[in-house]
Amino acid sequence: MDLDVYGDTLCALVSAAALASNGNRVCLHVPQPELAERLRVGKCPYREPGLADLIVEQVEAQRLCFAGFAEPPSDQSAVVWLALSPDCLNSAHGIVGGLPMTPRRDWLVVNQSTFPVGSTEALQASLLRRCGGAEVDCAAVSLPDLLTEGAALDGFTRADHWLLGTSVEWARRLVYELLRPFNRRRDAIMLMLPREAEFTKLAINGMLATRLSYMNDMANLADNLAVDIDRVRQGMGADKRIGDAYLYPGCGFGGQSFSRDVMSLASTLQHSGMQPQLLDEVLQINERQKEVLFRKLWDRYGTHLRGRKVAMWGVAFKPASTRIDNAPALKLLEALWAQGVEVHVHDPRALPALAEWAGARDDLILHDDPYAAARDTDALMLVTEWKAYWSPDLARLKAVMKTPLLLDGRNVWDPSFMKENGFEYYGIGRR
Predict the structure, then answer these.
(1) Cβ within 8 Å of residue 352, ≥6 positions away
(2) Which superfamily does 290-426 belong to?
(3) Which of 151, 197, 234, 250 has its CA 20 to 30 A from that of 303?
């Protein structure tokens, strides 16, 4: 089958490569010609396991090619797959409005972009206007992006579930056929209406954010009650009505997609005449939580922070990412700088993004080695739970630090073990 995928998002790249790997002929339309050239030689903008190699493999097999946004789909294509950035809704309508209309050429538009609820129906209306009186079948369906960065390729090829929004039977059958190679273990496709699928995507992220913010509130309360939140977390997770997913407290969540989806859901509620009180509180809790390590440092040094040096391990919004969108580290850095603190940072992948965000500063020093970042510092903050940070060389770490003070923003270290090794330890609700 011939398909045209539009977008430069992680979702677009994964979808194009995965669909091509099953024998489809896919043309990936990207807005920048230089991106296409980089992808051809395996230089993927996302550090996604296996993705760059799969793209090169499909290019060499001549099942994947590239084009610009302005170029129309191939003559044999009848499927347009939209995996655009959330701010590209106008581009989506432009793509649909530019589709060639020829006799006996049906069009299926698969909308995998995270647009506002009701956008797929609007695309359907644009598509029908484009069809006019032509004797063709046209349909737009919603297939929300449920991929997780760091496991996106597996998330597409071995999806736990898909949300398919359509009421058009021939469109449903065609999407089922496209996803059939990835849907063999069991039927993982959940059928619903387009706006139900769009809303479900937002509601999922709203629920996950609520659980995280709730646990962060409980962790802060645990500090006041002399309770270890990790034992509380395990007790809660053992209850089958709750489960153990997304119950790990920390120093706040970030990421462009996650934060944006929660705000979009809150905005949808507000525009519907409802007050998004719960989601507003979730977002406020999260913003406060991003400064929790700063508050612990502030209390520990009795508000005297000016002139101190602090090490920070991890600035990416999550492990296995190069991105710092809405990352807790950014708000933490601003709070530290405001108090005259010199910050030494290590991150396995996100230092270029941090350098671009911060610009040249005398109070920000980037390090390729985590122990070099910790040298002669008054405290070490663990902000992103990269696996490389879970089992540090404690003797070496203690030897290089001026004050062996650990502020664990992800509760990855054992408090008792750290204290036995001569460190002063503060976690999120840990004892």
Answers:
(1) 322
(2) NAD(P)-binding Rossmann-like Domain (3.40.50.720)
(3) 250
